[in-house]
Write a structure and sequence with these properties.
Largest interface: A-C, 52 and 43 residues
Structural class of chain A: alpha+beta
Order of helices and strands of chain A: EEEHEEHHHEEEE
Strand order of the largest sheet of chain A: 2-9-4-6-7
Oligomer: homotrimer
Number of helices of chain A: 4
Shape of chain A: elongated
Strand content of chain A: 25-35%
Chain lengths: 169, 169, 169
């Protein structure tokens, strides 16, 4: 997690322009759709998994140059977002939600279903299950210190399948 | 709301793979766009409406097999997200926001406009107005216990029009 | 910010139907993708910038009638959402996050990196970096009082490049 090799410019906001100084346009080619699923195992309890390598690998495999990847996590106790994936924030992000939507307060969900994961549901619905990331020049247009993460809010070990649907040329 | 008929596997994360064990790809067909609006009436105050049946019905009517539906709620006091739509969470989710972004504290918005809905605006902007859900095999790729909801944060009865734009083949 | 000229109907939810009373469909034309970047300068600290005029101007310039714009902010300390962009909420929205995810509490991120912006990261990941807005009839399908905003949560002046990728016919 050494940031000494950090490129010049303001922290976390670097992105290569699609084509330097030029807008891009693809009109002569037919757009393709390719849908993939990424299987994952989590320990729940706010664990975050960096799924950027999966997205990059799949983008390479589908061979698209310009477009977007629509990501979606099926299930109602997990979220997708981006974060600087480093050990500090892997603690800070779930800790922030433990403060505002605590585990150990009464939830109607728990009274009814006895899952003990009412807090997991409200956190998941707040952060949300979908994310769309554009790509250009064959690369995801993320900042240098920005990774795509699955956050598993459930209160136990889970298996997940993240959908990554690639759209482009 | 009986979950006895629940299919095997971990709770809330089931999704049929696009084609079992196989990635899907559609290159020989031209992608279509179809835009629909879903009119709704809400009582506001954090009421959540399950709009999954609307999305499924419209998906059937547009006859697409693979693609995504982009959903968007016009207006600045409502949100779209997913949740397990059951009576407990229908109370828990708005209650969580009442704790963190309470109705009865001063908002500059209310001092200026006297709408009394400053809390509605900050909640709506936190959860967000857009959601993208992929579909494959003619079915929305939701988890078994995951529904798409409109959350109306406004402090009064409202009529809403949710946009559902279908993209696919 | 005078709302006297407000059109009739419920506040904040007006949107022109794609074609009055009719669903829209575009099957005979080939979908295009056009990727643009919008450079911005912010003062950070929860400043919100209205980027609706940029989106509208670019939509006009790409000449599409029906489709969606996928927006994404590279970097891990900023978010995209919609809000009623008026002076009250420009204070209320960051103030709400100062209450729930305060600047002046310990963050592991700050202990490790000494950026002092742990709060910026957790807020950015909560609200999220992506937004998808449909358009029809050549117009973004926003509510009358709903604007698209970049929220810069960082603790200092920043330059940003918001990606706007237009999809449509």
């Amino acid at each position: 997690m050494n940031r000494a090799g950090k490129p010049p410019g303001p922290d976390g906001g670097q992105v290569p322009p699609p084509i330097p100084g030029m807008p891009t346009q693809h009109t002569g080619q037919q757009i393709k759709i390719e849908t993939r699923t990424v299987p994952l195992t989590t320990s729940g309890n706010g664990e975050m998994l960096d799924i950027t390598p999966d997205a990059s690998r799949l983008l390479n495999s589908v061979g698209m140059v310009e477009g977007q990847v629509t990501m979606f996590v099926p299930g109602s106790t997990a979220s997708l977002t981006t974060i600087e994936y480093e050990p500090g924030l892997k603690q800070d992000f779930p800790a922030a939600f433990e403060r505002i939507m605590p585990r150990d307060i009464p939830y109607e969900h728990d009274k009814m279903w006895h899952d003990g994961n009412g807090h997991s549901h409200v956190r998941a619905s707040t952060v949300g299950p979908s994310l769309v990331v554009p790509f250009s020049g064959g690369r995801l247009m993320l900042g240098t210190w920005q990774q795509i993460v699955l956050v598993d809010w459930d209160n136990k070990h889970r298996t997940r399948e993240v959908i990554m649907q690639f759209w482009g040329v």
